[in-house]
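Morning run. Coffee first, then this:
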Amino acid sequence: MNDYYTDLGVSREASAEEIKKAYRKKARQLHPDVNPGAEAEAEFKRVSQAYDVLGDQAKRASYDRGQDPYGGATGGYGQGFTFSDIMDAFFGGTSAGTRGPRGRVQRGHDALVRLDIDLATAVFGGEQTLQIDTAVVCSTCTGAGAQPGSGTRTCDVCSGRGEVQQVQRSFLGQVMTSRPCQACRGYGDVIEHPCFDCSGEGRVRTRRDLTLKVPGGVDSGTRIALAGEGEVGPFGGDAGDLYVEIAVEAHDTFQRQGDDLHCTLEVPMTAAALGVTLPVETLDGPVEVDLRAGTQPGQTIRLDEKGVTHLRGQGRGDLVVHLDVKVPTRLTDTQRDLLAQLAESRGESVPTGRMGSAHSRKHSLWDALRGR
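And here it is:
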């Protein structure tokens, strides 16, 4: 088995990007158009085969384990067989000549990206610009994988069948099986002059902008599917789908619970006692809220249709305003006198003395405030 890492001039720890760069460099040096000659052509084929194996994650893993990257058992290509091979040979499941060449064009993979949006966009919806990094059709070869003006030729090894026959010995005697052709990777034809830009894949990776319409009512974890916006398949195959996962940023004022929004409104003690009209900020703009006289701490006011748009239905949730009555912690003497007079006029007093004592005295609120 060839040493593919030596053929490409990379270490066994090389990343996928390093392998790709090494192949491009050697392919330009050894390409028949640049460096004619039988020796250079043979070296070019070895380099192309090395990239075919090391550029594919599954094949590379198989090769690193000492196995045939094209499907053979341990010991190298054409040296081993499996029980399924024997069954295929006897019962014709995948026996010689039944599979044929496989198509180069394949559907691309789906892609998943995350989109951060603010709460207002989640409530009302809107357009967002996505910057995504996916595979697109190579503009140089338009997906063919070959340099412009060139094409493919029938594989000399398999004569276009995409597979080769092998005779192997087993405890049952000689068994004939079929394997994908190593020379053409099972395609039946060979790209003689791979495109320099896409390394013969018919696609390249690029960063592009995409406009997404976000519907009102989405929440963190919601996924929006965009058909045909994912990875383009090899050799111009149909693109997969793109899934956009929504992440809603935390808001300084509002907290979301289902389709309702919640916020806290601080109310002065005097306003809560007397009743007042206060402005309340909402995502729709400011609205005025009437507080009844005697409003208590912890009470709520519900503002209809000021919450989140229902994602799958009509209308919106509500805005729930939680009232936080603020009791002053520092008072001037004049303010103390006024509160004491209020307490006296209402007949309010507080107990003082030792708890549980039968001789505890009651003082007025004014006395308590004066520290008597």
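The chain has four domains: 1-80, 100-250, 255-326, 333-370. Good start to the day.
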